[in-house]
């Protein structure tokens, strides 16, 4: 049996985003009081992680539809984008070096690229019918 990696990683990132949101709400109050912009960044990271985790789950579910074939580079780009965007913010908020926030835009660009790739794939699939 082969693991459905997009579905699996979407479930892992989805569940961890709930845990990270709870930790941010209850365990990082002091950090957010001293540096309010970290609250906004952290909230964005949690929101983006959940949103894109759901997209990974949807992409994973499409693997069970025989006619629909999505290339692996789409979900791999999305997965890498979650890591670059969200994890760089989490590590920065948890006390990591400030240079981590310079990594975040690469994840954001990866999110945009993932959505554009999905648009392209939909377009190509619709024009082949």
Task: Write up what this structure looks like.
With 129 residues, the chain is mainly α. 79% of the residues lie in helices and 0% in strands. The protein is built from 5 helices and no strands. Helix 3 runs antiparallel to helix 4. The longest helix is centred in the middle third of the chain and has 27 residues, at 36-62.
Core attributes:
129 residues, mainly alpha, 5 helices, 79% helix
Order of helices and strands: HHHHH
Number of strands: 0
Largest sheet: none
Class per helix and strand makeup: mainly alpha
Measured by DSSP, the beta-strand proportion falls in under 5%
Report the average pLDDT across residues: 93
Low-confidence stretches: none
Count up the helices.
5
Looking at the structure, what is the overall shape? elongated
Our Rg estimate from Cα atoms comes to 16 Å
The share of residues in helices is over 70%
Intertermini distance: 32 Å
Question: What secondary-structure arrangement, pairings included, does this model have?
Answer:
Blueprint: H1 5-27, H2 29-34, H3 36-62, H4 72-93, H5 104-127
Helix pairs in contact: 1-3, 1-4, 3-4, 4-5
Quick synopsis:
Helices cover 79% and strands 0% of the residues. The protein has helices at residues 5-27, 29-34, 36-62, 72-93, 104-127. Helix 4 (72-93) packs antiparallel against helix 5.
